[in-house]
């Protein structure tokens, strides 16, 4: 081959668009004969109309609540796109929690979908509200189309069947439309309300394409694009995200049932871990054995993990977000397991137990464990209707300060330590004691401070109580006997009109009960 031919071949290769080259390995036929054959002789898709989902009425009430806050404005809530893990491999899809809450959709439905609440005349919208809702998504392509077998992200041949527009409409009681109509639905009549236009509020940073579409529409319809204050518009969008977050502070009865399902599966996952401990103790990555045992339960009983599991043995238990889980599990150490199953509805549990790897606490381990348990019990006792959310933390950490003082670890008095000017006890408990729980493990995170930290505990709230003590091996401020011990006890709490209910109470909490529980599981496994 001469230089000219070589150059010509290189030019031919380089002319292939980069984004298409990932398909070179597929060797997919392109002949008309193949396309015609692939489009023929397929059984028709079932035409059964599904029953209405149990969540549909609850989701409609949530949309009605949001409608009340944003009369006359178009609200755009994206599910989000698929996210690339590596090259052409995507992570399992999980929609934005605000989208899931307002539609009721869980599991892996539907990448690129968008919920739009279109303003209507006051009181003339859905359920007497001020908006009409439409779900825009990409329906299943027909088996006579090229997408059916050629689209590895959306084709039925690759990823299985997906609901049709009619099926989702029946299940959710929510009008649906093809995603091809989405751009017009978002951009039509956008403009300043004072000149007859419609303003938009968007849940931002969920789908970059939707962000760009809304920004372009705002710019193109601005009275003076050069003076358009994008920061001001971003602030309007943030109010929508804030409202969606605050809407989840109080769970409805369907959500509470989902939380119970997630917690029950999580309890089973903890038992699975205890069964796996004999193997974990002999494996070079024992923490991964623990992680894998819980993950199997999460996939068997739910959709996924609610968050990355913390399986931390020995000194690793003093690392608050130890998710590497690459260490050994050694006899005589404590294992801190912080894990939660996410149900198919996407509601997650968040539970922590600290257990002796071989089934029995040492004296100093038990001493630290019981101090943390006392703090958790104090937090639970403080969690009563009408009390401020922040008071749970105060009650729990005061007990920890008292125990640290009794052990001679506090350099100041308890009174000075718990004052805002002190806080020395927080060296060994630097995180908060509680957070809201639901669709996100740290749910309602965009809620205003006065409704979250300074909010009043109210019937329907679900939150954690999770004090801990973390004595690092390298901590020279404590005696050697404490070093390398990390303990956290975390439970999921439902607030009722009569007080708190521990949803995760099926998992033992007292040191003696933990030892007996582990011994029972070991006996069952051997017997």
UniProtKB/TrEMBL annotation:
An example molecular function term from Gene Ontology annotations: aminopeptidase activity
Listed EC numbers: 3.4.11.9
Region: Disordered, residue numbers: 1-28
PROSITE patterns the UniProt entry points to: PROLINE_PEPTIDASE (PS00491)
Keywords, sorted A to Z: Aminopeptidase, Hydrolase, Manganese, Metal-binding, Protease
Record field: compositional bias (Polar residues): 1-18
Gene3D superfamilies referenced in this protein's UniProt entry, alphabetically: Creatinase/methionine aminopeptidase superfamily (3.90.230.10), Creatinase/prolidase N-terminal domain (3.40.350.10)
Class in the EC hierarchy, top level: hydrolase
Cofactor: Mn(2+)
Annotated Aminopeptidase P N-terminal domain residues: 53-197
Catalytic activity field: Release of any N-terminal amino acid, including proline, that is linked to proline, even from a dipeptide or tripeptide
Family (UniProt): Belongs to the peptidase M24B family.
Protein known as: Xaa-Pro aminopeptidase
């Amino acid at each position: 081959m001469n230089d000219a031919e070589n150059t010509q071949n290189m030019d031919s290769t380089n002319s292939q668009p980069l984004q298409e080259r990932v398909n070179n390995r597929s060797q997919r036929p392109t002949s008309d004969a193949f396309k015609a054959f692939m489009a023929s002789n397929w059984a028709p898709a079932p035409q059964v109309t599904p029953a209405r989902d149990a969540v549909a009425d609850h989701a409609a009430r949530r949309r009605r609540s949001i409608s009340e806050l944003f009369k006359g404005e178009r609200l755009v809530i994206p599910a989000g796109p698929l996210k690339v893990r590596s090259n052409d491999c995507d992570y399992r899809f999980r929609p934005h929690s605000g989208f899931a809450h307002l539609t009721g959709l869980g599991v892996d439905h539907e990448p690129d979908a968008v919920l739009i609440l279109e303003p209507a005349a006051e009181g003339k919208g859905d359920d007497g509200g001020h908006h009409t809702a439409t779900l825009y998504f990409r329906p299943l392509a027909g088996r006579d189309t090229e997408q059916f077998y050629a689209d590895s992200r959306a084709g039925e041949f690759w990823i299985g069947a997906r609901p049709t527009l009619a099926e989702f409409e029946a299940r959710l009681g929510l009008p649906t439309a093809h995603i091809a109509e989405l751009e017009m639905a978002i951009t039509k009549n956008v403009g300043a309300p004072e000149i007859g236009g419609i303003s938009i509020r968007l849940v931002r940073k969920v789908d970059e394409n939707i962000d760009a579409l809304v920004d372009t529409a705002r710019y193109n319809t601005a009275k003076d694009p050069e003076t358009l204050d994008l920061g001001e518009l971003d602030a309007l969008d943030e109010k929508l995200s804030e409202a969606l977050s605050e809407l989840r502070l109080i769970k409805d009865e369907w959500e509470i049932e989902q939380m119970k399902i997630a917690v029950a599966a999580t309890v089973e996952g903890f038992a699975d871990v205890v069964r796996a401990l004999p193997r974990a103790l002999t494996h070079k990555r024992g923490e991964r054995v623990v992680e894998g045992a819980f993950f199997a339960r999460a996939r068997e009983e739910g959709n996924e993990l609610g968050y990355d599991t913390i399986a931390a043995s020995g000194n690793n238990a003093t690392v608050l977000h130890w998710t590497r889980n690459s260490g050994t599990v050694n006899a005589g150490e404590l294992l801190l397991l912080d894990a939660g199953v996410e149900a198919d509805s996407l509601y997650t549990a968040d539970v922590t137990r600290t257990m002796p790897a071989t089934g029995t606490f040492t004296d100093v381990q038990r001493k630290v464990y019981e101090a943390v348990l006392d703090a958790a019990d104090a937090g639970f006792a403080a969690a009563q209707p009408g009390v401020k959310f922040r008071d749970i933390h105060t009650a729990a950490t005061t007990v920890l300060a008292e125990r640290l003082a009794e052990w001679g670890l506090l350099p100041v008095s308890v009174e000075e330590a718990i004052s805002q000017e002190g806080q020395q006890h927080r060296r060994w408990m630097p995180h908060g004691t509680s957070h809201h729980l639901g669709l996100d493990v740290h749910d309602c995170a965009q809620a205003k401070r006065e409704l979250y930290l300074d909010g009043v505990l109210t019937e329907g709230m679900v939150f954690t109580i999770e004090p801990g003590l973390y004595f690092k091996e390298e901590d020279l401020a404590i005696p050697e006997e404490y070093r390398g011990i990390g303990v956290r006890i975390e439970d999921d709490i439902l607030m009722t009109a009569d007080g708190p209910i521990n949803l995760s109470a099926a998992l033992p909490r007292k040191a003696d009960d933990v030892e007996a529980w582990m011994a029972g599981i070991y006996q069952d496994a051997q017997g």
